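Let's practice the habit of predicting before peeking. Look at the sequence and jot down your guess about where helices and strands might fall. Then scroll down.
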Amino acid sequence: MTYSIEWYGNEHTNWSDRKGYVPFVIVDHISAGTMASMDAWFRSSGNSVSSAHFGISRNGEIHQYVDIRKMAWGNGATVADYPAKVAQVVTDNYGVNPNLYTVSIEHEGTDGSLTEDQFEASVWLHTYIRDQIAEIYGEQAHFPLDAYHVIGHYQIHRGKPVCPGPLFPWERLYARLAEIDAKGDDIMLNADVANTIISTFLSPEWFRCNDAMTAASTESDARAWRELRDYQKWLADELRKASGQKAE
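Done guessing? Here is the structure:
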């Protein structure tokens, strides 16, 4: 399944220049509030302290507040702010403001538990961010979606000990991202191209076969048309899966 991203940033949304740094880490957050409050805060003239690149609602809607090429204000930390179990990537970039090399995802909620729609949108968004970074900065900027490159806010700042929440599905997220990475360099079919093939060729053929099956005068003819009809469905679902969409 593919998702649309709605732009929600405005003239009040906080951001800074990345100062030449290329982002290669994704940091997950929990909003500790509603999507409406998140939108309002990141667009407020009274907010001079924070921002995030993306937010995901409980129903899977994705909002973007800051361009990936810009630095959002969500992961700032000095050495004194590091938690006892600081992320390895932060240690490896000791003393560098993590905002410079990270992209932030906020999730609507309080305890880190995600709805199924929200989880699926988050998986998609992690891959989208990685792909966008490679498109913007070149393939050399491509990075694996593993525990080194995908971390929680709690691994950066000791003042956020539970962000993105005690129930955040880390194990499931890493498993899904690993499954995606396991496909290696396989080229994913463009979803729009897949859907055009389905709607232009496979869907009409499915209906033609279905009509022929219904009108068949013998059971053997009906069975043959049914098999051909079901084959169109199988092909359509394979195209959907090959383009990152769900089978129907």
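How did you do? Residues 191-242 form one domain.
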